[in-house]
Design brief:
Blueprint (H helix, E strand, L loop, with lengths): L8 E5 L4 H14 L4 E4 L17 H16 L2 E11 L20 H11 L9 E13 L6 E15 L15 E3 L11 H7 L1 H8 L1 H8 L7
The chain binds inosine 5'-triphosphate and magnesium ion.
Amino acid sequence: MSDAAPAPVKVLVASRNAKKLRELQRVLDAAGVSGIEPVGLDAVPEYPEEPETGATFAENALIKARSGAAATGLACLADDSGLAVDALNGMPGVLSARWSGRHGDDEANNDLLLAQLGDVPDERRGAGFVSACALVVPDGGDGTPAAETVTEGRWPGSVLRERHGDGGFGYDPIFLPEGSERSAGELAPEEKDAASHRGRALRALVPALRALAAGESLPE
Ligand SMILES: O=P(O)(O)OP(=O)(O)OP(=O)(O)OC[C@H]1O[C@@H](n2cnc3c(O)ncnc32)[C@H](O)[C@@H]1O
Ligand SMILES: [Mg+2]
């Protein structure tokens, strides 16, 4: 018998957005969950990704994590996120990545949102980032998941009138977090992680990740 620690449990972190992926890995590192080895999509054979057709962030996060787990047999973590703007009744919401019509075109998305809010006065520029993080553990049998956990995090604030800073990604340069004098694009990475929707959602998932690493059933 050897006392060597058991091999870490591989967790596929399923995002095609390199900057989001970096944030997810940073928060996981900072949380220091031992016994987990995050792996990226480039470390597994390519699989067809299902379209993100859910009406909510949680549904979309589950779509991504379920397809990653079913295709690879690995536990899979996915984030679905976006900016919900009060004056737009919660949009762009789940359409945030493709608000301008071109998926992942941050510049065009920011331009369009700023133009749409051009006449909206300061007191009605409220908005919040939302992240849903899903962890799906496959059962190794017929492909149906053995366990699923979804957590959500929110980061309240408002939409600025112009870009400030070039850190982060997406709508960060035009988002002013509540209580902050700097835009999300002007925050250091660790400042963003401490406050952000993604940081909050992912930290809420840590008990489930610890349970996975320990071979226990996931908390409800
Ligand atoms: O689905 P994956 O492959 O993870 O990558 P994606 O970029 O398509 O990710 P989403 O479908 O979750 O869409 C999220 C969009 O919401 C915006 N967004 C989410 N989190 C953000 C953040 O922390 N800062 C700025 N914008 C963010 C940004 O426009 C993202 O492209
Ligand atoms: Mg997406």
